[in-house]
Amino acid sequence: MKYLNSILFTTCFLIFSLLLIGCSQNNKSDKTEDAEASESIKDYQRIIENGKLTVLVENSSTSYFVYRGENMGFEYEILREFAKEIGVELDVKIVANLDNLVDMINNHEGDIISCNYTVTRERTKLIDFSVPYLQTPQVLIQKRKEDPKNIDELIREPIQLSKKHVHVWENSSYYQRLIHLQEEIGDSIYIEPVNGLIGSEELIEQVSQGIIDYTITEENIAQVNSRFYDNIDFSTVISVKQNIAFGLRKESTVLKAKLDKWLTNFLKSKTFKHIYRKYFEIGVAGMNPNNTYSTTGRGKVSPFDDLFKAAGKKHGIDWQIIAAIAYQESKFTPYIEGFGGAYGMMQFMPNTGPKYGVYPNSSPEIQINGGAKKIAADLNAWKNIPDSDQRLKFALASYNAGRGHIEDAQRLAIKHGLNGNMWDGHVEKMILNLSKQEYYRDEVVKSGSWRGTSTFNYVQKVFNRYKEWKSIYR
């Protein structure tokens, strides 16, 4: 009997102990959940109290860049609307090395990752994602052959990547896709990994220049960059559509919930459709030349020669330079909508045009006069440069990129022992360097990120056309 009582006591004790342990574990679990919820609330409250939402961006057309003095970027404009919704300012932090993105977000150096970030299984182990705002496949970037007869030499099927060299960011979904693609085609692809200091757009530029053969990026990025590099082909799809979303810390559940709810409604709005169209549907102004006036030898530069001459006389500048700018900007098309919302023959940005009396519905005469006034002001801003041709190149660069960027390049040139008053071989070198993200950490760079290579090419094309037209047309 004593033996049975002992067994009964021991059994009851064990059951009671297990119940206590279970309750203890449940309490710990509840406390952990409460702590996480409390931390998430504090995380969001900090954003509201500080009055700013810090986003980690890359210098790219889809993430964030500066175009003609205006902050732009597909993701930037979306998050700017969200920041307005929660009553804070949008604080942009450019990330030079994209390999650091996850560490930076988890170390509270930013609140949201905004870098055209693909949702992958590996990334979801480290961070959370918002609801996707875009779905897009990965595409192969390759250079079009100069001879149209060689078009068949382009890769049209992924299996043709066998034994080809493809450069991609190592910590990207592109790299993982190529790993899987090797298995699918049953052969090796020579994957050339690059670090996070080199972005997709820099690799696209290298393909365009023939430095590398191939790279991979999302179709939306390729669409935007085809405006700047008209010799790239991105029609070969190598993946299914993938989700693109904003990245957040796992603890930022309140911020994620608010962002998700807002995005779900915003993606159906006219504002989102306008932003999407501005970046992905509107072609570059003047992409298709007006052949009637695109070559010399016809006696006229354009249908508007008399207006160019009158504006040149009024503002004391050669009319041919105004015409050369108009040709480069719009191919003499008065009512065209261009990249980023630029409008008209002289492609004024919405915040700049009114300063020169030019609006989207202004007459060709007013547009041309406004453009002449703008280039005259840019020439005057560089009046301390003694050589007239060099001064004009600085003015053209300012017209294209905004004066702040060119002043940055001039300061960099001086810092590196070059002549700050010489465009050719001096300041233009720094223009090309400013296409690289690491230069934005330099103390002399004040105006923000933009595509320096585009400005470099712009100056060359407009100046050469001006010189040619000046020698032929009076």
Q: Which band does the percent of strand residues land in?
A: 5-15%
Unreliable segments (pLDDT under 50, ≥5 consecutive)?
284-297
Give the proportion of residues in helices.
Answer: 40-55%
Query: Topology as H/E string?
Result: HEEEHEHEHEEEEHEHEHEEHHHHHHHHH
Distance between the termini: 125 Å
Radius of gyration: 28 Å
Mean pLDDT: 86
How would you describe the shape?
Answer: globular
How does the SSE layout of this entry go?
Elements: H1 2-50, E1 52-57, E2 65-67, E3 70-72, H2 74-86, E4 89-94, H3 101-106, E5 112-118, H4 121-124, E6 128-129, E7 134-136, E8 138-143, E9 165-169, H5 173-185, E10 190-194, H6 200-208, E11 214-218, H7 219-225, E12 232-237, E13 242-248, H8 253-266, H9 270-280, H10 305-315, H11 319-330, H12 364-381, H13 388-401, H14 403-415, H15 423-433, H16 452-472
Parallel strand pairs: 1-4, 1-5, 9-10, 9-11
Antiparallel strand pairs: 2-3, 5-13, 6-13, 7-13, 8-11, 8-12
Helix pairs in contact: 10-11, 10-12, 11-16, 12-13, 13-14, 13-16, 14-15, 15-16
